TrEMBL record, chains A, B:
<feature type="binding site">
    <location>
        <position position="150"/>
    </location>
    <ligand>
        <name>NAD(+)</name>
    </ligand>
</feature>
<keyword id="KW-0456">Lyase</keyword>
<feature type="binding site">
    <location>
        <position position="141"/>
    </location>
    <ligand>
        <name>NAD(+)</name>
    </ligand>
</feature>
<dbReference type="GO" id="GO:0003856">
    <property type="term" value="F:3-dehydroquinate synthase activity"/>
</dbReference>
<dbReference type="GO" id="GO:0000166">
    <property type="term" value="F:nucleotide binding"/>
</dbReference>
<dbReference type="GO" id="GO:0005737">
    <property type="term" value="C:cytoplasm"/>
</dbReference>
<dbReference type="InterPro" id="IPR030960">
    <property type="entry name" value="DHQS/DOIS_N"/>
</dbReference>
<keyword id="KW-0862">Zinc</keyword>
<dbReference type="Pfam" id="PF01761">
    <property type="entry name" value="DHQ_synthase"/>
</dbReference>
<keyword id="KW-0547">Nucleotide-binding</keyword>
<dbReference type="GO" id="GO:0009423">
    <property type="term" value="P:chorismate biosynthetic process"/>
</dbReference>
<feature type="binding site">
    <location>
        <position position="246"/>
    </location>
    <ligand>
        <name>Zn(2+)</name>
    </ligand>
</feature>
<keyword id="KW-0963">Cytoplasm</keyword>
<dbReference type="GO" id="GO:0008652">
    <property type="term" value="P:amino acid biosynthetic process"/>
</dbReference>
<comment type="pathway">
    <text>Metabolic intermediate biosynthesis; chorismate biosynthesis; chorismate from D-erythrose 4-phosphate and phosphoenolpyruvate: step 2/7.</text>
</comment>
<dbReference type="GO" id="GO:0046872">
    <property type="term" value="F:metal ion binding"/>
</dbReference>
<keyword id="KW-0520">NAD</keyword>
Length: 361, 361
């Protein structure tokens, strides 16, 4: 049983298929593959689990593979270059399709390689983590990290299709499941109070991987993301709302060293900090902030930045984030739970107070 | 005195300004710069000649610079990454403009960095070689080399403007002037028999850098390129005609080691080989091929591949070129002088005969 959503981007429109058993089904790919050669890009954790069934599903094509090390610390230019090594070693021309099999790191690196190989070839996303299924595989943002900042080098390159097989979540470590829930909660916080209430009452099912609950959460998340991306593909405006918690979060990821924190964990803490700042600006009430922190905590996620990352270090790291325009830091904050805004009207003292505010639940 | 052409690409349209004194004139840039910060990307040869006057012309903005080593052998991922190091070191946000000051290598690397920095920032081309002014700065092809093939990693990213100051050609080494003429001749061979006749009768003036002759050659070359690019921005069809001599040429550049041959020199030899192949297919007559070789030779360019590059090595190197689709090599060949076509109907024996045919004029 599967469902299909559409990301409506004119000539670059594509479907998101969500359901059980999709990964091993040749029909998931047949309408989308271009050319007769496929390069699967995956990592050492995912390959033993899903590379064989994927290759069998693609047995009508000439399939090659490149297996990268697993983790955010490998989302580097050097590791990215291994994809080109493999493509050129095997003499891939332009008439091919890349397939990203894995989580957000694999999707970002494979998508960015597809954007740049011979100035652009098509690719398909086969996300195997909750985070990738609800967020990073949809919308065409691809890229790699630079030591000075996350996702600093990249491209907008939309996939031909997203094949989200919910069965793959059965093998996902609990920590990664929670990390994905951070992005699921984000959609509720920025845009959908009703979904947020649903998440609140179904968190236990989600954490115990009830297939119906997960399917609903993935579908609703992708619906919201697809809508926002269709309205603002290149992030000229409201797509920035999807970055709730990300300016703080990226600073935590960079400060702790890439790979030490999962992206979703850092976003969870960043969301708590954005709520703290929203409260200081008079937009959220105490009870809203508490409700938000409780939800994040119940999802198995951290709510405090690492103790050894000082407010000054955070400021320094945040100053190079992409969301800094013209020297002004822009923040995604909450007017209420279910409504986000983008603002650059945050004075330094208020920001500093948030960075210095370390409370425990 | 200057002239302006337009590259007509809808929202991505931009002007090419051609003339004397443009580089040092603030008005060349004012209508185009975005944001208040500029990163000039240049190399160690060009910087001592033109960095100061360019920085003075841009003195209304906050200007930074990154100076790369000079030569095709440095068009690598590692050197490209130094542009990101500089941008991040100086905390450039998205609201900035990159300026490429130099020849084709600088334009390709700076343009590709602009395509990828924070998923895309604008850039301006300030070409200082004849080759860059007539060809590489126009049309939005950007990229870097991989050890296995030239321009294998890149993007289509159109500049905001091309500022071609003909005065910069006064400092150009003779070898580089000739290399640029290889691309000028190309436009005549593929599309404009009248221009070809004009080039034939004005080669001496061009080689002695007569400003009027150079201006006319640059303008006519850019007109033809702008027309072709406007019709086929992403090289789905006839833009490939601009690659006359390039499949052979790229193999020579890679085979000799990047930097050993200038790109234009390799293209000159590649054009002779394309003519040889066109003759074997019955399209060109002996006298056409001789006329083509004589013109290339008169421009101070080589007409024979390096003696130590065997036909088999050439074949091997050509097989990874971007113009290979689906295992089939595509060639840009000449139906007559002034008309090119793209074909994949070249049998291996005929190709091999061309690769093995080493004649001297």
């Amino acid at each position: 049983m599967s469902q299909t959503l559409n990301v409506d981007l004119g000539l670059r429109s594509y479907p998101i298929h969500i359901g059980s058993g999709l990964l091993a089904d040749p029909e998931s790919y047949r309408p989308h593959v271009r050319g007769d050669r496929i390069m699967i890009v995956t990592n050492e954790t995912v390959a033993p689990l899903y590379l064989d069934p994927l290759e069998q599903a693609l047995s009508d094509y000439r399939v090659s593979r490149v297996v990268l090390p697993d983790g955010e610390q490998y989302k580097t230019m050097e590791v990215w270059n291994r994809i080109f090594d493999a493509l050129l070693q095997e003499r891939f021309g332009r008439d091919c399709t890349l397939v990203a099999l894995g989580g957000g790191v694999i999707g970002d690196m494979a998508g960015f390689a597809a954007a740049c190989y011979q100035r652009g070839v098509p690719f398909i996303q086969v996300p195997t983590t909750l985070l990738a299924q609800v967020d990073s595989s949809v919308g065409g943002k691809t890229g790699i990290n630079h030591p000075a900042g996350k996702n600093m080098i990249g491209a907008f390159h939309q996939p031909l299709a997203v094949i989200a097989d919910t069965d793959t979540l059965e093998t996902l470590p609990q920590k990664e499941l929670s990390a994905g829930l951070a992005e699921v909660l984000k959609y509720g916080f920025i845009r959908d109070a009703a979904f947020l209430a649903w998440l609140e009452s179904h968190m236990a099912e989600l954490l115990s991987r009830d297939p119906n609950a997960l399917s609903h959460a993935i579908k609703r998340s992708c619906e919201i993301k697809a809508l926002i991306v269709a309205e603002d593909e290149l992030e000229a405006g409201q797509r920035a709302l999807l970055n709730l918690g990300h300016t703080f979060g990226h600073a935590i990821e960079a400060g702790a060293g890439y790979g030490a924190w999962l992206h979703g964990e850092a976003v969870a803490v960043g969301t708590c900090m954005a709520a703290n700042l929203s409260q200081r600006l008079g937009w959220l009430e105490d009870k809203d902030v508490e409700r938000l922190r409780r939800l994040i905590s119940c999802a198995g996620l951290p709510t405090e930045p690492p103790a050894d990352l000082s407010p000054d270090q955070m400021l320094e790291l945040m100053a190079v984030d992409k969301k800094v325009l013209d020297g002004k830091m822009r923040f995604v904050l909450l007017k209420e739970l279910g409504e986000a805004i983008v603002t650059d009207e945050v004075d330094r003292d208020t920001l500093y107070a948030t960075l210095a505010d370390r409370r425990s639940l």
